[in-house]
Amino acid sequence: MLAAASIGFVFYGLYSVVIGAHGLLAIVQLEWRANIWLIGSGLMLAMNSVFVRASTPGGLALTNV
User: Which pTM does this prediction carry?
Assistant: First the structure.
């Protein structure tokens, strides 16, 4: 189940990055600051998906904060 959660985090993070980059390059409803925030949060989510699969004690608790 943790593998599915980790893959879901990666896909949603990459989706956010792609949507944010599309918003910066095309004319859409969001401002440029909102698109930058979307890209940044998507990158953090994709990078932190590794910690879901961490075998250290409390590795799962750290990702849910």
Answer: 0.71
Give me the tens of pLDDT residue by residue for the chain, a chain 65 residues long: 777 878 888 899 999 999 999 988 887 777 889 889 999 999 998 888 877 765 556 555 555 54
Q: Are 52 and 9 a contacting pair, CB within 8 Å? A: yes
Domain extent listing, the chain: 2-63
The residue with tokens 């985090």 is: 9
CB 49 within 8 Å of CB 2: no
Using CA atoms, how far residue 24 sits from 7, 12, 20, 33, in Å, is 26, 18, 6, 9
Distance CA 17, CA 10 (A): 11
The answer to whether 53 and 2 are in contact (CB under 8 A) is yes
